[in-house]
Specification:
With about 270 residues, this protein is of the alpha+beta class. The longest helix is centred in the N-terminal third of the chain and has 16 residues.
Length: about 270
């Protein structure tokens, strides 16, 4: 945190002036510093809502923006923002509430003190300035909004005779939550169907123990010509052992037959 100037005896001289356009950017940075911790713990953001909205306020009529600074080089230690009516885009109050009670309020939209100067009398000087504005403008009350869990600010205001006007409280109810997406689900493997191939990796059923292998020859494959003509393939007859031997001798290699003739000639 930047160390702000002060007298040798530790005292400070605070002066107040109206904000200028050249002050907007550094005032915005000051407000972010002040409300940083408060906004982390509240349901709704405490003012300021956004920098765009803060810059727009400067051009609106009927709104006072005051800077509180210490001696050179003019470091900001406080900022106050107030309005004398409920007009404007950022209206947050019901004017009839005050009309029925004969109240002419000065609405305090901001009252921010530098964290390093809280407890030094800066806030009290700012409140005196706002009360002075209210008196010279014919107002009867200062009205402001503060978060209910901002205990430090609530204690400070109550010590200065602020009282609660309304009972606006955020309520919540816990609901048993269920996930929108279902958890993963394991699905069974594919089932074989009649007349179709078994799934990959599934072996054929082994033959029963003691069963004789079939001696029937495998059927001859049906050729494409047979399929086109509608003919049926005929299984050739099985030769006897003697016929098979004779066929083998007659179809032997020519070299063996020549050797047999030469032996018989000798």
């Amino acid at each position: 945190m930047k160390k702000l100037p002060q007298k040798a005896d530790g005292s400070l001289q605070v002066r107040v002036r109206r904000i200028h356009r050249r002050d907007l950017n550094r005032t915005w940075e000051f407000l972010k510093l002040v409300f940083r911790d408060v906004n982390r713990e509240t349901v709704e953001y405490q003012r300021p809502f956004s920098k765009r909205r803060f810059l727009e306020i400067y051009d609106q009529e009927g709104i006072e923006q005051l800077l509180f600074e210490v001696d050179d080089p003019g470091a900001i230690v406080g900022y106050a923002e107030c309005a004398f009516d409920t007009s404007g885009d950022d209206n947050w109050v019901n004017p009839r509430y005050f009309d029925k009670r004969g109240m002419r309020p000065l609405f305090v939209d901001e009252l921010a003190v530098h964290p390093g100067f809280q407890g030094r009398g800066v806030g009290a000087f700012m409140l005196d300035q706002l009360q002075h504005l209210a008196r010279v403008r014919g107002c009867t009350h200062l009205v402001l909004e503060v978060a209910e869990n901002n205990e430090v600010a609530l204690s400070w205001y109550r010590k200065r005779n602020f009282f609660k006007l309304d009972a606006a409280i955020f309520l919540a109810q816990k609901v048993t939550a269920e996930p929108e997406l279902l958890p993963p689900r394991r699905l069974p493997g594919p089932r074989p169907e009649d007349g179709r191939k078994r799934p990959a990796g599934k072996a054929a059923r082994p033959p029963k123990k003691g069963a004789r292998p079939s001696s029937k020859p495998a059927p001859a494959p049906t050729t494409r010509a047979h399929r086109k003509s509608g003919a049926q393939a005929v299984t050739p007859p099985v030769p006897t052992p003697r016929e098979a031997k004779a066929a083998a001798d007659s179809s032997g290699p020519p070299q063996r037959k020549a050797q047999a003739r030469s032996r018989s000639a000798g």
